[in-house]
């Protein structure tokens, strides 16, 4: 059961790429995951852990700690990002290249366009014009989508989407406390639509879904359709643990409406990066979120002010958030 996900969206010369890294809870000897993307898939690639980590460090909200003692301990978080990663080998074969008949469904309403390996994942690229046939294929392949299966009908009816079924076997079936973060994966398509398929969470199991989206491009990105966007401003956590405060703040914003908070927009290693955060209730995932680029280069960064307590904060990271501390005397 995945309730936390990180996403990188970017346009390319031939369309767009979306990179995912998810965290899931629950013990399992194998993991299956269905990725919905617009357009025709042109590649499934092994992505870079370092890229996600560097983007997170560069764009995390910064905490300004006001110490009642009057001491200034200095400190501060790093904002550098060497986030392009190494070579991402394309491992993809079409049905023709493989010399196999990969058609599925008795009426050919589901087609297997490609299959292969990307890092630790085994993947199959599917297109479909019938939801029942797609569901039958996934069932036979061992994918248990649960209630999410009903959401597939929305994408099949609209048309123009591809479905990437990926699976892997974790090294250990037992999941540690806090969940297990899977290796990232990238899907390239011929569509320049910067879309995150949020509707897939509408009928999923988690009551709340934590999502971080980075959009890379020439200027500041913005939410163009589907969800609402709010600009992040300075927040005051008072003496509450900043991590807990931020979690509750995001949940309060997206409890009843689909909303992303823009928490960062600036250049990172020569590439303009805009970051959006949400911790949204399951019921608000009624539309996909569409991103596009604004005409301006306005910068933005979220700061959280807090009064340092006598005891230590837990500062529990949410999806690996690395908080940058900067202490100031009162």
Strand content: 35-45%
Distinct helical segment count: 5
Shape descriptor reads globular
Distance between the termini: 44 Å
Q: Main β-sheet, in a few words?
A: 10 strands, mixed
What's the total number of strands?
A: 22
Radius of gyration: 21 Å
| Poorly predicted runs of 5 or more residues | 70-106, 172-179, 316-330
Q: Helices and strands: which structural class?
A: mainly beta
Average pLDDT reading: 80
Order of helices and strands: EEEEHEEHEEHHEEEEEEEEHEEEEEE
- The level of helicity is 10-25%
Number of domain modules: 1
Describe the oligomeric state of these chains in a short phrase: single chain
Question: What keywords describe this structure?
Answer:
single chain; 330 residues; mainly beta; ten-stranded mixed sheet; five-stranded antiparallel sheet; 5 helices; 13% helix; 42% strand
In short, what is this structure?
The protein has 330 residues and is mainly beta.
Structure description:
With 330 residues, the protein is mainly beta. The chain has one domain. Strands 1, 2, 4, 10, 11, 13, 15, 17, 18 and 20 form a 10-stranded mixed β-sheet that branches. The C terminus is likely disordered.
SSE arrangement:
Layout: E1 2-12, E2 15-24, E3 31-38, E4 41-46, H1 49-59, E5 62-67, E6 93-94, H2 95-98, E7 110-118, E8 121-128, H3 131-140, H4 152-158, E9 161-168, E10 180-181, E11 185-189, E12 194-196, E13 208-217, E14 221-225, E15 228-231, E16 235-238, H5 242-253, E17 259-268, E18 271-281, E19 289-293, E20 300-301, E21 303-307, E22 324-329
Parallel strand pairs: 1-13, 5-21, 5-22, 15-17, 16-21
Antiparallel strand pairs: 1-2, 2-10, 2-11, 3-9, 4-11, 6-7, 7-8, 8-9, 12-19, 13-18, 14-19, 17-18, 17-20
